[in-house]
Amino acid sequence: MELLIPTVAFRGGIVASGGVVYSAAADGQLYILDADTGKFIQKKFFGVALGTQPTLGQTGTGGVRLIQTNGLGFTGGGLGGIPGLHPEL
Prior knowledge:
By secondary structure, this protein is mostly beta strands.
């Protein structure tokens, strides 16, 4: 799969889990794509350039959380409240 969005810089890699690909971009968006087809699912705006890849982790109660940093500190986490973000969240 190739991700190309004209005029948007990508750095730091991608994360894939549960059939979903997450890619942070310099335009402040976290792009969310179908891992099998590459089809755009949605994006989440963080308000700052994202130069590191997102991280998926599990809570003590078994929930899954996606954490995204901007290199200076945490800019978001616990994104399971976004409908359709990830079927397992």
